[in-house]
Design brief:
Elements: H1 22-27, H2 29-44, H3 52-72, H4 82-104, H5 106-109, H6 111-114, H7 123-150, H8 161-185, H9 189-202, H10 218-221, H11 225-238, H12 244-269, H13 272-275
Helix pairs in contact: 2-7, 3-4, 3-7, 4-7, 4-8, 4-9, 4-11, 8-11, 8-12, 11-12
């Protein structure tokens, strides 16, 4: 009988709470790419319509909102046709909300990986945004067609569109990391996420213009990071006046959410392999 000592393997993150370990994240970039490709394949595997699902979801939502809010409720649309007004906001919103949902549930869905091998856990929620970005690009084609149909062409403000989408992605990832960490410890948070997304939609100027909010309360709605960002995206694409104050407030909140999400995720990370 061997007297060799039993080796204990501990799976834990390297570094401390403050270190963001960007070099380590870069080292595991191939794992991130693999997870993104896997999520895309799983999403479209054995489906009848394939990538058309990415078109149908925002397009059908646009039709429903146009009928009930544009035609029946007569909600204003800043002088634009209501279908393109709401569709332009639906694209970044669905990227944001889809990122929250997928990243918030990503650790539970990949529990078999977390309990077996070490890698930066942040890669899992970050990879969840990859498939959503592909959906965004596919659905963006419809927006281009609608812009040509309505004769709307963006101006120089279009240059700010990629930066605004980056802020949307950071806000989505920040909130998603917080929810993912909470979901590991408290499994009922998976039921909170759909309610949060639904409530957040109506608190964001997607189906209505920000101009409907009284001026004295505009700063309050911009504490919602998606308010100023979606309004800015809509303005940059549809050649509307841009409120830099709204973008500044919402952009700052988005960055804060991302940083808070990182620190909260790192603080909870050491417990993942034990309780998942």
């Amino acid at each position: 009988m061997s007297d060799a000592p039993i080796q204990e393997i501990v799976i834990e993150p390297r570094g401390n709470l403050v270190g963001l370990e960007l070099r380590e994240l870069w080292h595991y970039r191939e794992l991130w790419r693999f997870l993104v490709v896997r999520d895309i394949k799983v999403r479209y595997k054995q489906t009848i319509l394939g990538g058309l699902w990415a078109l149908l979801q925002p397009f059908m939502s646009m039709i429903v909102f146009t009928i009930f809010f544009g035609n029946l409720a007569k909600i204003p649309s800043d002088g634009l046709p209501y279908p393109i007004f709401v569709y332009t906001a639906l694209l970044p919103w669905q990227f944001f909300s889809g990122g929250i949902s997928s990243s918030g549930n990503s650790l539970i869905a990949n529990s078999h990986l977390i309990s077996k091998v070490y890698f930066p856990r942040m890669i899992i929620p970050a990879a969840s945004l990859g498939a959503g970005f592909l959906d965004f690009l596919i659905a963006f084609v419809i927006l281009l067609i609608m812009m040509v149909y309505y004769g709307i062409f963006p101006g120089a403000a279009l240059l700010f569109f990629p930066f605004l989408m980056i802020l949307v992605a950071l806000a989505s990832l920040g909130v998603g990391m917080i929810l993912a960490a909470l979901n590991v410890s408290y499994r009922d948070f998976r039921y909170v996420i759909p309610f949060l997304v639904q409530f957040w939609l109506f608190a964001t100027p997607v189906i209505y213009p920000a101009s409907m909010v009284p001026e004295q309360w505009r700063w309050l709605i911009n504490l919602n990071p998606m308010a100023g960002l979606i309004t800015g995206i809509r303005s940059s694409l549809l050649n509307l006046p841009i409120s830099w104050t709204d973008i500044w407030i919402s952009g700052t909140i988005s960055l804060l959410l991302f940083v808070i999400g990182i620190f909260f995720f790192k603080k909870m990370e050491r417990r993942f392999a034990d309780i998942i």
